[in-house]
């Protein structure tokens, strides 16, 4: 999939408006990271699925957001002990991957691009923080405050294999959403490959 500039701009505006609706100030985020966020890829490698400019926001809005909402309403419905307030859930989902905007950079090596590795890690960064830590740093830098469970959930991205029954429902739902999204993107890529093979 390739997004036009118009599509990327539209998705970016929708994304910012959703953040504002959930109480997140966006002025500094726009100023410091606007273009990088708008153009960021969700994945680095083609076989992970949705590896293209603008896919970070596209996936966050259209796949992760919907998946998290459905888990929270259908599986962990209102009134159950695992239900998370919508404002906190969507705020966390929308912010959880923004670190990729500074971590990933377009791949310059033609040989690597031919192998499907379309993005590389940004070697110009001064620190080698993981995704959760990078996202939290960006939030701090942009004056975005997080409560205890939101902070825990985003932190857990860096050690998701250790998420357990002791974590908050928000943390568990975020990681479930991330895992399901990764699987969905991978299956989408495999289905696309099968279609290409049949057409040939």
Q: Overview of this structure, please?
A:
This protein is mainly alpha-helical and 200 residues long. The chain has one domain (5-194). The protein is 60% helix and 3% strand. The protein is built from nine helices and two strands; from the N terminus they run H-H-H-H-H-E-H-E-H-H-H. The protein has a two-stranded antiparallel ribbon with strand order 1-2. Helix 3 (55-75) crosses helix 9. The radius of gyration is 17 Å and the shape is globular.
Strand content: under 5%
Widest β-sheet, arrangement of strands: 1-2
Number of strands: 2
- Write the H/E string, N to C: HHHHHEHEHHH
Shape: globular
Distance between the termini: 19 Å
Main beta sheet strand tally, sense and closure:
2 strands, antiparallel
How would you state the average pLDDT, rounded? 94
Write the topology of this structure.
Layout lengths: L4 H17 L5 H13 L15 H21 L10 H10 L4 H4 E3 L3 H5 L4 E3 L9 H11 L6 H8 L13 H31 L1
Antiparallel strand pairs: 1-2
Provide a compact summary of the structure.
The chain has helices at 5-21, 27-39, 55-75, 86-95, 100-103, 110-114, 131-141, 148-155, 169-199, and strands spanning 104-106, 119-121.
